[in-house]
Amino acid sequence: MEHYNMNLTLKVWRQQNAQSQGQFETYQVKDISSEMSFLEMFDVLNEQLISEGKEPITFDHDCREGICGACSMFIDGQPHGPWSETTTCQLHMRQYKNGDTIVVEPWRAKAFPVIKDLMVDRSAFDRIIQAGGYISVNTGNAQDANCLPIAKDKADESFAAAACIGCGACVAACKNASAMLFLSAKVAHLALLPQGEPERRSRVMNMVEQHDKEGFGACTNTMACEAECPKAISILNIRRLNAEYIGAVSSGRD
Amino acid sequence: MNWKQAFTSSIGKKLVMALTGVFLILFLIVHCYVNALVFLEWFGPLGRGYKAYEGAAHFLGSNPLTRIAEIGLLAGIILHIVQGLMLFFDNKTKRPVDYNVHPGNKSSKWYSRSMGLLGTLILLFLVLHLYHFWVPNRYQQLVTGHEKDLYLLMELTFKDLWVVIVYILGCISLAYHLLHGFWSAFQTLGLSTKKYTGLLRCVGTVYSIVIPLIFIAMPLSFYLGLLPDAETARAATQTLAH
Known about the structure:
The structure holds two protein chains of two kinds.
Chain A: E1 5-14, E2 23-33, H1 38-51, E3 74-75, E4 78-79, E5 101-105, E6 114-116, E7 119-120, H2 123-130, H3 152-162, H4 169-173, H5 180-191, H6 200-213, H7 224-228, H8 236-251
Parallel strand pairs in A: 1-5
Antiparallel strand pairs in A: 1-2, 3-4, 3-5, 6-7
Chain B: H1 3-8, H2 10-36, H3 48-62, H4 64-92, H5 110-113, H6 115-144, H7 150-157, H8 161-188, H9 197-223, H10 230-239
Helix pairs in contact in B: 2-4, 2-8, 2-9, 3-10, 4-6, 6-8, 8-9
């Protein structure tokens, strides 16, 4: 693909802290390379702001290779921007043309309060994991390989659910700010494996309870989460979560 | 985990919606079947549809079992409405600061995001519908012990063009509500597995189109005079063999 440079107008949400009122600020960036990632474009903008003596824009980022789930921008109405199965760091500027205007907002959810600018507090996800997204095993020597036979389809399905990077795009995309896709991925990947069996019932009950306590909404099955998930986590996991929930409720065990 | 907790969590509330939803889906099949009997007028001697419809309606209206089931139906509808409205308003509070740019239809269907609105339209239609048929029929039954001639009631009600239009709009709202709701109920109940999700989507789509279309055909047929009037049909039933 041919390389080109572009000038862009950015409308970015600026907010001093969780308490303050935020507002959109408009910035112009020049000579952005089509080979840059979206975050590199933000780096250029921040350098520009620093040289002008202004405060740079705060945004989450870490690995910048699409696997950590830190980056979290809501770009022109879509979490992680217009490319499917892509995180913001893997969105590249060849998506845009010279003269484009891009609106960048933080994830919006009661359970994800804004910390500053585009950075939100996603610790609610950590607390959901703490409520049950683990297995209890005795430590000691590593077990023999293959001593726990797991069917290939189960292993594949579990692995696909475990691909969730906990970025929160599902919450950002959901009209109810529900975290069902995240929650279901975390429940499903353990529910499919024998290692997850001992805490199977209590896990789903505790994690759903924590999900609700954090202030996430209920699921309407609009499937916006699946469409926006950078790891293409399937809503079949939500189906499994619901079945696990019904199983746990009707088994009567806590 | 007690039952109260089980049905008040975010998933529990959805289970209430799904269970009552499936119940209402089943009811619609019975309702549609009984009312569609009027169309037998097109498939046989004059009066055949009238007779079949009046017979079935009278059987349901005078049978103590179906009268008890009617209470269950009312409870199901009320539960579906109340829980639906509670979920709608509760979910609205989960994003206190809204986005400046909305995703629109990029990632989801408009009707899947509009179940609250579509449900409210159906509720408004339902109030009018009960006022047209259920209330006067039950009232007369209570006072005189006899039900109304429902075929005649349909004929008279659907003489007004605005009533026909409102019924058509109500059925279109129902169609879109079902187009999402049918599959969604099975997803919530944990039954829309990889193997069955395609089948459920397919059956759901067919159901959501066919049932409302049959319902729309009734006011339309009466208004356009495609069905014989009640008097002629009733008179003809006298000559029909039993």
